[in-house]
């Protein structure tokens, strides 16, 4: 049994239902073959490519094994992507979604596959022509600013989250996640959690928050001009404080530089990509938000990422991950906690 078949069987993944729905919607011809290929698994929601001779789609579903409470929410991804379909934030078209029941065999959704590249590793970032790097970075932060300045009420997302008390709930949530996912003693991470909890700032603004705005959650089109053509992985999106996203951008862009990291590369380590300070200046001019407390948001970002990786480490220890690259995830947790404490110093 191959990896896709194993996941399909263990998770009751109903490929026949998917095929019949695509046919009924006119997306797939009656006699066309549909192939399934695992693109990514285990760290987040499982991602499959569905393909006919002429079309490609993406199917997303939750991972196997231990799951962080409130994570891997298919409904959130579908809701926000449908709402943003005609906005300045590029997202794939949702084709259909299924909630868990005996017929569907599990919660999942299918969306169009946007053609382009995903820049994930340092080799990927090094391969970008130096003349395109600044433009691409600016488009990245412009997408974030566009998301944060969307009128969520006019998009029908007034009930998408509870922005009042968002930061306090986030700190409680990730502290609770740590308690449920911890497989070892982590005094440095617990110290960071306590420091974050004791210094929560007032909320900067209220906006749609992505929750995981890494560069490798972007689909890019390289050339002249280079552009961001799709924003992916909306499972942690909600209404809340936009600077929580900007704090995570700091971590991804430069904050985890030097930490042995199997997850993603560090754009700022490559000449031609602007510094994080340059991105912050552009973001601030675009949004008009007060960023005086950004150090706290950076510290919180390190805490959140360390907790997420500890949860992945637990799934790896329990043999519940799918794919490669999980054996070193746990070694990132303490260095991230140390960086978080430095950000708050």
Written description of the protein model:
By secondary structure, the chain is of the alpha+beta class. It has 2 domains: 3-112, 2-Layer Sandwich (Phosphorylase Kinase, domain 1); 122-344, Alpha-Beta Complex (Aminoglycoside 3'-phosphotransferase, Chain: A, domain 2), CATH 3.90.1200.10. It is 41% helix and 12% strand. The chain is built from 11 helices and 9 strands. It has helices spanning 3-10, 15-24, 74-83, 122-127, 130-148, 166-181, 187-197, 243-255, 276-287, 294-317, 333-344, and strands at 35-40, 46-51, 56-61, 94-98, 108-112, 207-209, 218-221, 227-231, 238-240. Strands 1-2-3-5-4 form a 5-stranded antiparallel sheet, sandwiched between helices. Strands 6-9 form a two-stranded antiparallel ribbon. Strands 7-8 form a two-stranded antiparallel sheet. Strand 7 and strand 8 form a beta hairpin. Helix 8 packs across helix 10 (294-317). It is globular and about 65 Å long.
What's the layout of helices and strands?
Blueprint lengths: L2 H8 L4 H10 L10 E6 L5 E6 L4 E6 L12 H10 L10 E5 L9 E5 L9 H6 L2 H19 L17 H16 L5 H11 L9 E3 L8 E4 L5 E5 L6 E3 L2 H13 L20 H12 L6 H24 L15 H12 L1
Antiparallel strand pairs: 1-2, 2-3, 3-5, 4-5, 6-9, 7-8
Helix pairs in contact: 5-9, 6-7, 6-10, 7-10, 7-11, 8-10, 10-11
């Amino acid at each position: 049994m191959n990896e896709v078949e194993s996941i399909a069987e263990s998770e009751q993944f109903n490929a026949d239902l998917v095929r019949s729905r695509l046919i009924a919607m006119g997306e797939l011809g009656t006699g066309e073959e549909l192939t399934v290929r695992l693109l990514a698994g285990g760290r987040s929601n499982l991602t499959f490519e569905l393909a006919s001779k002429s079309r490609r789609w993406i199917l997303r579903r939750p991972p196997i094994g231990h799951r962080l409470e409130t994570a891997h929410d298919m409904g959130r991804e579908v809701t926000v992507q449908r709402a943003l379909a005609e906005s300045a934030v590029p997202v794939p078209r949702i084709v259909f979604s299924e909630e868990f029941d005996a017929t569907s065999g599990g919660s999942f959704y299918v969306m169009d596959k946007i053609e382009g590249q995903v820049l994930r590793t340092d080799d990927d970032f090094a391969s970008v022509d130096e003349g395109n790097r600044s433009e691409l970075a600016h488009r990245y932060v412009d997408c974030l600013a566009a998301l944060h300045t969307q009128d969520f009420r006019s998009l029908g997302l007034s009930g998408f989250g509870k922005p009042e008390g968002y930061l306090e709930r986030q700190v409680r949530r990730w502290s609770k996640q740590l308690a449920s996912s911890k497989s070892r003693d982590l005094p440095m991470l617990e110290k960071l959690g306590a420091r974050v909890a004791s210094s929560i700032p007032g909320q900067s603004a209220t906006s749609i928050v992505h929750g995981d705005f890494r560069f490798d959650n972007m689909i890019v089109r390289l050339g002249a001009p280079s552009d961001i053509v799709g924003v992916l992985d909306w499972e942690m999106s909600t209404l809340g404080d936009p600077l929580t996203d900007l704090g995570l951008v700091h971590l991804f862009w430069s904050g985890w530089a030097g930490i042995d990291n199997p997850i993603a590369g560090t754009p700022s380590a490559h000449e031609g990509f602007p510094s994080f300070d340059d991105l912050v200046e552009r973001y601030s001019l675009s949004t008009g938000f007060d960023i005086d407390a950004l150090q706290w948001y950076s510290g919180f970002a390190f805490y959140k990422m360390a907790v997420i990786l500890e949860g992945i480490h637990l799934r790896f220890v329990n043999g519940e991950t799918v794919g490669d690259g999980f054996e070193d995830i746990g070694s990132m947790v303490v260095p991230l906690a140390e960086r978080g404490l430095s950000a708050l110093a």
